[in-house]
Design a protein that fits this description.
Blueprint lengths: L1 H7 L8 H19 L3 H11 L3 H18 L2 H17 L3 H18 L3 H21 L3 H17 L3 H17 L3 H17 L3 H18 L3 H42 L3 H69 L6 H21 L7 E4 H10 L10 E5 L4 E4 L1 H18 L5 E8 L4 E8 L29 H11 L2 E5 L7 E8 L1
Parallel strand pairs: 2-4
Antiparallel strand pairs: 1-3, 4-5, 5-7, 6-7
Length: 510
């Protein structure tokens, strides 16, 4: 490619050589840009794009060490951070913290001067902060937020200081401390607005609103209100700047006309042109005002729709729960030995249980449980329910763990009963426990049954998706299990990497 570009410069003189010189410069700049990333980092990015988490993480760590040996510490720390994210993405928190300790030691060994080290240590402290927030340990996260403040104060990087203000605002909003969040966010917005970096402020607001939507938090409405107020004040400043600039332009043009003693015709043409410019600006301001008003109305309408939707969902849940409670006394008078009556009683009970789980905010209580006998007892409950020659296996350490025994027992019992139903003769059923961190736990229930089609894996956790014959099951077992998992600060899902049957993963924190 480079050789070709060099050759075409020497074409005949009637060709436009400037065009080819431009192409050559573009090629050289692209080649230089690609050279900024090492081959190891490019390999890590390729592994990440393919979804190979382990391979990507391994190569990012190699890139971190390689850049550090070359003295390119910013790239080194950035690669280490990417590797760290891939660690705790799979709940390998111990390994993630160990890697961050290595990064801090490398920075201290390779970088001279506290001012130069501060922005790099800031990135490491920010990773620790984000990990503790993900683990739900907001008090420990606050300690690392203070460390970030110290690093930002020691360094002289404005980008780091702006990032700190944004991170603090999100922290306060996440904990429901709206007043503190508003104060910090206003400080950042005022700082950027004063330097007329309006686009940066707008991008930060949009990011905050998007994060709120993803997490489903209440800070979306607050962010919208702050954004609208800031937008109004900023538009006024922009308009004032534009009018001031226009007046200066008019004054400069008039001065130029006077100095050159131009003809009346020239002056008239310039004045007409400025008049057209002023009219265009006025039209732009009117259009901007109309767009802004439509945005404000749309925001208010969206907030109203969200509020009405939440109220309707609460009323629906209460209505369904009341119907179930009212039907239960009548159903109990019927002959419960009949399959249809028993199915109706179970359905009524499941509806009440699901409603209570979805609408209850009571904290759960944990207790110490010996894992090995706990898992063995659960597996023993299905020994007389499995088909011939089905192998049952428990893999649990002889340790204790703090768990919500009632909910975990209910979830695992339901999953094991399902496995007993769908595992054919000669198959296997496993119950495994894995410790994923200091307070992170994982139970795995696996079987060699027919499996669940990929397109239906998420639907099995949603209630009331289809009309069922209640004597064959009401389809509320897995939705109830997932709600219980959410109540204990966890989740229940199907392992997409397991293809020999079905594997359910129960992850939670204590």
């Amino acid at each position: 490619m480079l050789t070709f570009a060099l050759k075409i410069i020497y074409l005949p003189s009637h060709m436009n050589r400037k065009l080819y010189i431009f192409i050559l410069g573009l090629l050289l700049s692209c080649t230089f840009a690609n050279a900024q990333k090492s081959e190891i980092e490019q390999r890590a990015e390729s592994e990440a794009e393919k979804g190979h988490v382990g391979g990507a993480r391994y190569n990012y760590i190699l890139a971190f060490e390689d850049y550090a040996n070359k003295g390119q510490m910013k790239q080194s720390v950035e690669c280490a951070v990417k590797a760290n994210v891939l660690y705790y993405k799979e709940n390998y928190y111990n390994e993630a913290f160990d890697l961050l300790r290595r990064v801090d030691q490398t920075i201290d060994a390779k970088v001279q001067g506290a001012v130069s080290r501060a922005p790099l240590h800031y990135l490491v402290s920010k990773e620790r902060y984000q990990m503790y927030m993900k683990m739900g340990r907001s008090a420990t996260a606050a300690d690392h937020l203070r460390a970030m403040e110290n690093h930002a104060a020691t360094g002289s990087d404005d980008e780091v200081k702006n990032d700190l203000l944004y991170t603090k605002a999100v922290y306060y909003y996440t904990l429901g401390q709206t007043a503190k969040g508003n104060a910090v966010f206003k400080e950042m917005a005022d700082k950027l607005t004063a330097s007329k970096e309006y686009d940066k402020v707008e991008e930060v607001y949009k990011t905050l609103i998007a994060n709120g939507r993803k997490s489903g938090s209440a800070m979306v409405a607050q962010s919208y209100s702050n954004y609208v107020a800031w937008k109004d004040s900023t538009n006024a400043l922009k308009h004032a700047d534009e009018i001031k600039s226009l007046k200066k332009q008019i004054a400069d043009n008039e001065a130029t006309i006077a100095d050159k003693d131009s003809s009346l015709t020239t002056r008239s043409a310039i004045i007409i042109g400025l008049g057209i410019l002023a009219a265009a600006l006025a039209a732009a301001l009117v259009i901007g005002a109309v767009v802004l008003m439509r945005f404000i109305m749309l925001s208010r309408r969206q907030k109203k729709i969200i509020k009405v939707s939440e109220e309707n969902n609460a009323l629906k849940a209460k209505f369904i729960n009341n119907i179930s409670a009212q039907l239960e006394p009548t159903l109990k008078k019927l002959d419960s030995s009949k399959p249809e009556v028993k199915a109706l009683l179970d359905f009524s009970s499941h509806i009440q249980q699901l409603s209570e789980l979805e609408n209850s905010d009571e904290p759960v209580e944990l207790e110490d449980v010996q894992l090995q006998p706990f898992c063995e007892a659960l597996m023993n409950q299905i020994r007389d329910k499995v088909k011939a020659d089905v192998t049952l296996k428990v893999n649990a350490p002889n340790l204790s763990a703090k768990i919500h025994k009632e909910y975990v027992s209910h979830i695992l019992t339901h999953l094991l009963n399902n496995a007993a139903i769908y595992t054919p003769e000669g198959g296997n059923i496993w119950l495994d426990y894995k410790k994923r961190g200091a307070h992170a736990h994982q139970f795995l229930v696996s079987d060699t049954g027919c499996g669940i089609p990929e397109e239906k894996r998420e639907d099995v956790f949603k209630p009331f998706l289809e009309v069922r014959d209640l004597t064959e099951g009401d389809g509320l077992g897995l939705p109830i299990c997932r709600q219980m998992a959410l109540k204990i600060n966890g989740d229940l899902d199907i392992d997409p990497e397991f293809h020999k049957g079905t594997r359910f993963m129960l992850d939670f924190h204590s």
